């Protein structure tokens, strides 16, 4: 098996070259690893190979986007068929209608769809649509939840004990965030109905929407309670506000995404990742009366929106092929693998006498190096000892041929078999054994 970092001289060389032309050798903060990241060369099925020829089970799927892994024949054929016809036009194509048709069919809450180039843009346009529809400025979001790189969506993403009070304060993620941005975002704790009710009682007439990921990755990958989401809809609607579901990641949980599993119909839904078949994509969808803010047929719309590569036919064709291949049987297969691995990882923590637990649903799971109940962002906030364990865990898995997120997130893909899941679990078990020995 490869040993990180000694068995990756090619990656080291590329990183040294990258440092000369990119800040910190990086164009994507999420893939940075100290002392250098692994550079991918190719992927096939559920595996990737780095530039040094080392093979890995890919348990991050480009941060959950590659639900079919790599080189899926249907997706490859769709892209190859489109390339000689043109990759992007200053005109609409049939392909965007067909993918929109599929998404509207799978999401009962969505009457109409508008495409973007990323999940960040999908969330941004959902927030702007809520403002345009309600004519109100503020949004409510969950402390610690990641929703992309839009200023307003980043507020309180990485708040720390230094600024914690009884209720989360709106804190900047990036230096230089304008105070006006912080003033228009209200951060609340996760799964706390009474805190949500109190915020709306105080500021309800200024709130355009509540933005929520039903199983927020950065905030712990803890599923929202159904009663909490039901109350959220009731509280928001009573105040004339909307509910936005960020399903950029959670849409991979089922045929109709997380909202289908929970039986909740949000007003707007942001999508991305799996709907592009491995190409840059995002979308916002929702009720027809709200989506009408984008409608240009009567003149300048309430919310103008463009994008040079939005709904380009390569992405649309790849996304359509990928989504058609994502059958109900595919979800059942991923659910079985996910449940088996979550149970196995939980047992491994106990076997090694190591404080920790495994949470998630469907094809997603996340490890936490803590034994107390995980309920929200603050309950999973890692101290220095936990950060050290995450680093050892991530790099230990690299040495055993498993690629995961540095913060403990795992995503499964449809090409994975039970044998693959067994090999992944063995690598996790051995790595947790090492972490326990070092603790």
Q: What attributes characterize this protein structure?
A:
about 450 residues; alpha/beta; Aspartate Aminotransferase, domain 1; Aspartate Aminotransferase, domain 2; 2 domains; aminotransferase
| Whole-number total of structural domains | 2
How many strands, which pairing sense, and closed or not: the largest β-sheet? Answer: 7 strands, mixed
- In helices, the fraction of residues equals 40-55%
Structural Rg: 22 Å
What's the CATH architecture name of the largest domain? 3-Layer(aba) Sandwich
Low-confidence stretches: none
| Helix/strand order, N-terminal first | HEEEHHHEHEHHEHEHEHEEHHHEEHHEEH
Overall number of strands: 14
Assign the CATH class of the largest domain.
Answer: Alpha Beta
Number of helices: 16
- Termini Cα gap: 24 Å
Write down the CATH topology of the largest domain: Aspartate Aminotransferase, domain 2
Envelope shape: globular
Tell me, rounded to a whole number, the average pLDDT: 97
Strand content: 5-15%
The CATH homologous superfamily of the largest domain is called Type I PLP-dependent aspartate aminotransferase-like (Major domain)
Main sheet: strand order: 4-10-9-8-7-5-6
Structural class: alpha/beta
Family: Belongs to the class-III pyridoxal-phosphate-dependent aminotransferase family.
GO molecular function, one term: transaminase activity
Organism: Mesorhizobium atlanticum
Cofactor: pyridoxal 5'-phosphate
